[in-house]
Structures are given as C-alpha cells and as structure tokens.
Design brief:
The chain is of the alpha+beta class and 662 residues long. Among the domains are: 32-182, Glucose Oxidase, domain 1 (3-Layer(bba) Sandwich); 186-380 and 391-441, Glutaredoxin, CATH 3.40.30; 449-507, no CATH class. Helix 6 packs across helix 10. The longest helix has 44 residues, at 594-637. The N and C termini lie far apart (143 Å).
C-alpha cells in the first residue's frame, strides 16, 4: 500500500541522506487477526495471522471457510488453471493456502482472488516471527493489480502452515475461521483516528491513492466529525538533515529551520521542479489549518481545504504555491454559502455537500495560520513540526510510523488499501457494538444476512416486522421499534409489542377474529403488556376459544329455560310466552288476565278523561280572565263606544257631587 523506508535512513541520492526521527531500535508492530481451526476436531486450536498491508481486511467481522492447498503452483506466483477453480462449491467460502517465496505477496493474493478464493493464507517457509506482508514498490506490474485486490489475506507461521497441509494431504476437510473482531479495539462510543499523509502529489500512484482517498472519504469523515462520533487528526512525516550537510545546497533546498525539518525532492531531481522545502511548507500549512479550524470547533474543514488545494494547486499544473493556498482559504467562505470554486470558475456544490456543512460562511483566518506556521528560516525548533516528529515514534500498542500513508484507528495501525468503504468499516469497528452511527449502516457496509432466513431472528410474517438488523459486523437480533411501538423480547424467538398504541400494530401480537361482521380482540389499550381473551372466550390471549356457556352449565339454569350458544356469548329463551330476565336468571309471565286488562284500560280511560276535562276547564277560565284584564286596560286609554263626538271622560281624584253639571 505504501512506501516502507529503511529502518535507519531514506536514500535520496548517492550523496545525501535524510534521517527519520526514530529511536535506536525501530519498533514496527505487526497487526494481527486470529485464525481458528474448527475441523477436524482433534486439530482445534487458535493461531495468529499477520494482516497484509493491501487488500481489504474484514475489520469487525469474520469468515468461515474450507482450506484448499493447490496441487500445482503451491507458491501462487502464476495464474491457476481453469475458470475460477477455487470458487466455493458449498455454502462455505474457499480459503486458499499458498507458500511464501518466489514472488511478491500481493501477486499471490491477486492470483488467488482471480481463481475464486475468498481469502488467502501465506504459509511462511522460515521458522521466524510474523512480519507484515507489504505491497511491492511502484512498478508496471504492481500498478496493474494491487489496487484491484479486494479480499483479505494473512501470513501464518511455518508450523501452523504445516499442520494445515498435513491434514489436507490425509484427505480431511479443514475448516477455519478468520476473525478480525478483536483486531480493532473499541473502548468507548467515540473513535479516534489519524492519517499520516503528505501534500506532495508528484510521487506517482501512491500520492494519487492518498488524494483520491481524501476526496472520496471526505463526506463520511465530516459527518462523523460533526456528529461528535470521531476525533480526527492529520499528521505529516518529516526528516532531518545530518549536521555535516546542513549548509549544503541540497539541505537548504529540501529543509526549513536549518535542516531540522526536511522532505524528499518531489521529482527526485534537485535541478528542476519543486523543492522538498516547498512540501514541508505546505505540510505545515495544512497542519495549521486543522489546528486553527479545531479551535473554532470546525476541525472537519481540513478535509475541504486539502481536497480543494489538491484540485486547484496541483504540482502537475505548476500551481503548488503559497498564493494558491491562500486563495483556497479565502474561497472556503464562498463555498459554505453555496458555491464551489475550481480554477476561479464557479459551479454549484452537490446537494450532499450542502447537507453536510453549516450554512454560515467560514473564513479561515490567514494571519492566524501564518502565526501558527512560525518562521521557517529561524534557527530554532518549530512548535508544530517538533510535535509531529515526536509522534512518529511508536507509543503504547502503536508502532513507529514508517509507511506513508498510514491510518491509525484507536491507536492501532490500519492494514489494507486506502479504500473509502474499507476504511469506513475499520473505523466503524472501533465503536462499541450497537453504538455505531447510522453512516456505519450504509448499503455498502451492511452484510445483508437478514435476506437469508431472516438471519435466524424473530419475525412476524403477517406484518413483515422483524428483529433482524444488518450491521457492518453482521446481523444482530434486536426487537424493533415500529411506528412508535416498542417490541420487547430476546429477538431470537420472541418479540412482543408493549406500551400505548401497541394494538394498532398487528393487534399487539394478540388474538383477533371477525365473525358475522363482529370483531373481537385480546388486545386492550388499557393494558400495557400481555394479551387477555375477551369476555366469553378462554385462552392465553394469543389463541382464544369461544366458551360454550350452555354446555358447561354457566347460564340459563332456571326452570323452563332453553340455552343456545353464540360466538362470544349465549341466548336464553323461556317456555311459552314467558320473558327471560338475565340478571335474576328467571322467567316471568309475559301475558296478564282479561279482568286485569279491563281494569287497566278502565283506569287508563279515567285518567285520560280527567286530564282532558282539566285541560278544557283550565283553558276556559284562563281565556275569561285574560279577556277581562284586557278590557280594563283598554278602557283607560281609549274612548268608549257609547260616548258622543269628541267628549272625553276625565277621571278626577274625587267623584262628582250629585246634580253637578258636567
């Protein structure tokens, strides 16, 4: 995957050496996965495998397969005969075992992949500790297949390889389990990861690999960072110039701070193109972009700056400069307001990008970044680069950083190619199980185990509700939450709806039946859990049977009663013309005697007559009274009919004396 430098120095020319900052004894950690023999039973055991630095290790997952050792071409250096001869013939994968030697490790794995193998184990031919299988240095052969390797591989010890081959020679089926579930630690709910990279884009396919990864992984990285799920830190490797060469033109062109921080010449030609110190300058600037952005809680801006710088300020286009870098920083504010800029041409950003970022413009303070970078010409340590050199040295479970690029996840060096999906899977494996964010459950990471027999989990086929959930680690059986209704149970054999509203989803998993247009259910909104058969039924709530009250003597016990069972109840009738009273479970006469009827009619008639007479009398008296009152009132305000002309009767306070004239 990357360039592995010599343990003591990196040869840049026949006359000049730049030394890596590292302890006297190099500490390169071999990252491992476990390999267990499951069959034959007498060989059951667990062994270590060294994860290759190419291909796609299945971080967080595992693989079960049958081992095959080829009869011809045991080293795997040549293509195998036939059309995918190792394609699995059963439900188990095929794991190819080959011997070390004669060709690159990566070529062996590539030939195995082409032949249909799901994974490749390389058996060491020497009795020595495990080493990391690295990809070859850049060559025309390597360029053709290394990036196409998409299966995992591992180096195993010589003794383990001999055990496998011995069992296969006896004709026994050998089944092994490759397990990466513990290869990536997951201590808590946040993943810390770092990328050791370089701003140089003139180192061929390796530089292109780095830049393509940053561009493709940017969206995932920013979602994880902005959600607080991860903490990302970029790093850059530097070298130093030996004291005898500090004043040489080579050191002065490739180093800053008087030989303390150096980078190889991008074109590996001191006479043309860019110089190593140009690379150190930009590496330092990118570190300060991250540091300054992180101070404003926007560390994820580093991904935008580096991606844009690579597009706009490429060495290949002769635009790798301080001025171009500052233009990129200035344009980031415009980018966040909805426009993107490439070569001073405006184009609309993608919908996905706009969803990821804040709508607030973000201006990277150039002066603050310059202050962070310090004075490159000073004969003194640079605070930022000094820290980088110290961090190159291994600590804890992490070894020295000697491969460029190197991804470190939870203090473990990632092995495998820098592929967007593979790296995301490795980062997701760093979360505690069931705490990973939704980005870890994207379509290209899900295992799709739920598609086959529902993953062995509980399922309600009527409503298509399932407890199976695909994750990058494989399926988990967990009772779901459906339309606000929570299901509880073990997830494997049972899940039951609980809480309010549960009856609305598949009737809460309870019994329900409709007959004659009438629907009855064992689910009740007033009961938060469980099922209870309704009145007139008997059962556990999941199945309910109608109770035959007549047959069991639970109803219609009175003399002369006849009982007929109905769905959910019963119907009682009395002999003759009697009426059944349910509360007293008795019958009463429906018909009375003729004299009774006559007396009843007579009483009713008398009552009715009295009522009518009272009504007539009431109306007559009321009418007479009203007429007299109205006449009295009218006589006071209106002339009487028997008076003449316009004479008016005057009402005095005293009566007129007898004989008085009017």
């Amino acid at each position: 995957m990357g360039i592995l430098w010599n343990h003591s120095l990196l040869v840049l020319s026949t006359t000049l050496f730049f030394l890596l900052i590292r302890p006297a004894r190099a500490r390169f950690v071999v990252e491992k996965n476990s390999i267990s023999i499951l069959h034959p039973y007498d060989l059951r055991s667990k062994h270590d495998g060294s994860i290759a630095n190419f291909g796609v290790p299945d971080y967080g997952g595992s693989m079960l397969g049958s081992v095959i050792y080829p009869q011809k071409g045991a080293t795997g250096c040549n293509p195998f005969d036939g059309d995918k001869p190792f394609k699995p013939k059963s439900s188990r994968f095929t794991i190819l075992l080959v011997d070390r030697g004669d060709c690159y490790f990566a070529l062996k794995v590539w030939n195995g992949q082409q032949a249909g193998a799901a994974a490749v184990l390389v058996a060491d031919t020497r009795d020595e500790p495990l080493i990391t299988m690295d990809s070859p240095e850049e060559s025309s052969d390597a360029d053709g297949y290394i990036e196409k390797i998409g299966i995992p591989s591992a180096l195993i010890r010589q003794s383990f390889g001999e055990t496998l081959k011995s069992a296969l020679k006896k004709g026994e089926e050998v089944v092994v389990k490759l397990d990466w579930s513990e290869s990536m630690p997951h201590p808590d709910k946040r993943v810390e990861y770092e990328l050791w990279t370089n701003s140089n884009d003139e180192c061929g396919i390796r530089c292109d690999e780095q830049m393509n990864f940053i561009k493709n992984f940017k969206g995932h990285a920013q979602i994880l960072e902005k959600g607080g799920y991860t903490q990302f830190t970029p790093h850059y490797i530097t070298w130093y110039c030996p004291k005898p060469f500090i004043l040489s033109s080579q050191c002065q062109s490739q180093c800053i701070n008087h030989g303390r921080y150096c980078a190889p010449d991008p074109e590996q030609d001191f006479g043309e193109g860019y110089q190593g110190k140009d690379v150190v300058f930009e590496n330092l600037r990118q570190l300060c972009v991250h540091r300054v952005a992180n101070e404003s809680n926007r560390s994820w801006v580093w991904w935008d700056y580096v991606s844009d710088f690579h597009i706009r300020c490429s060495m290949k286009r002769k635009r790798y400069s301080k001025e171009c870098a500052e233009d990129v920083m200035k344009s980031l504010g415009k980018y966040y307001s909805g426009n993107c800029f490439v070569d001073d041409q405006v184009f609309l950003c993608s919908i996905e990008s706009l969803l990821i970022f804040d709508s607030d413009p973000l201006d990277l303070p150039i002066e603050k970044i310059k202050k962070c970078m310090g004075e490159p010409e000073a004969d003194a340590e640079n605070e930022v680069l000094k820290i980088e050199q110290e961090r190159q040295v291994g600590h804890g479970s992490r070894g020295d950083v000697t491969i460029l690029p190197t991804l470190v996840v939870n203090d473990i060096q990632y092995r495998g190619k820098l592929d967007r999906t593979a790296v995301l899977k490795a980062i997701c494996a760093g979360f505690e199980e069931a705490t990973e964010p939704t980005v870890c459950l994207s379509g290209d990471l899900e295992t799709n185990e739920c598609l086959e027999r529902n993953g062995g989990c509980w399922q309600d086929t009527k409503s298509n509700i399932t407890a199976c959930k695909d994750t990058y680690r494989g399926r988990i059986c967990e009772c779901p939450l459906v339309n606000g209704v929570q299901y509880r149970g073990d997830g494997y054999t049972s899940c039951q709806a609980v809480g309010p509203g549960r009856c609305a989803v598949n009737n809460g998993g309870c019994w329900s039946e409709t007959k004659n247009g009438k629907t009855l259910s064992a689910c009740s909104e007033s009961v938060l859990t469980g099922c209870q058969c309704p009145h007139g039924f008997r059962g556990d709530g999941h199945t309910c049977e109608d109770i035959n009250e007549c047959k069991e003597g639970l109803a219609c016990k009175c003399n002369g009663c006849t009982c007929k069972n109905t769905w959910g109840g019963y119907d009682c009738k009395c002999d003759g013309n009697k009426l059944y009273i349910e509360g007293q479970d008795t019958c009463i006469e429906r018909n009375a005697s003729k004299f009774g009827w006559f007396l009843t009619i007579l009483v009713l008639a008398a009552v009715a007559g009295a009522g009518i007479a009272g009504y007539i009398f009431y109306k007559y008296r009321l009418r007479s009274y009203m007429d007299s009152e109205i006449m009295a009132i009218m006589s006071q305000y209106m002339p009487l009919d028997n008076q003449h002309g316009n004479q008016v009767v005057h009402h005095e306070s005293e009566p007129l004396r007898h004989g008085s004239s009017v």
